[in-house]
Amino acid sequence: MLIISNNPMVWEQYPDTLRVEGTSLEVIEEARDRVQRGMRLIAHPLSGNARLVRNPFRSVVLHDLVSEVNSRDLFFVEDAYYRLKRVDWGTAPDSTLDDYQIIDLDLLISTLEPC
Questions:
Q1: Burial class (CB in 10 A: 0-12, 13-18, 19+), 115
Q2: C-alpha closest to that of 100 among 22, 10, 17
Q3: 65-95 per-position pLDDT tens digit
Q4: 42-53: b or e for each residue (b if 16 or more CB lie within 10 Å)?
Q5: What is the DSSP letter of 97?
Q6: What would you report as the CA-atom Rg of the chain, rounded to the nearest whole angstrom?
């Protein structure tokens, strides 16, 4: 299993995380590259609700390299990429950054629970 994240709280709780020192879009780009090489998504890369698309922190979970690219996973990660590319990010107030990190971490934990 591989976690890709730009969330410092995730890095702290899951030290083997592939750290992306950048935006949510860069996390999705890294996930897309891995899916194109045959890794599978554990959950949709835009988990949560539509309002959380603007979360500046994102974690994606992938697993097992398979012999061929899964077209459904590729569609999901490409769709996530294009949705995030259209987001007007603005600037999140510093007072909300911890909240966004906690939300992303909670979504990640709920994704990992069944695994």
A1: exposed
A2: 10
A3: 777 888 999 999 999 999 888 877 677 777 7
A4: bbebbbeeeeee
A5: H
A6: 13
Taking 3-state DSSP, the helix, strand and coil percentages for the chain, each rounded to the nearest 5, stand at: 50, 15, 35
Residues of the chain falling short of pLDDT 70: 47-51, 89, 114-115
Tokens of 1: 């299993």
Closest by CA to 9, choosing from 101, 100, 97, is: 101
Pull the structure tokens for residue 61.
Answer: 């979970």
Q: Helix 71-85 vs helix 24-36: angle between axes, to the nearest 10 degrees? A: 160
What is the residue type of 61? V
Q: What is the DSSP letter of 114?
A: T
The domains of the chain are located at: 2-112
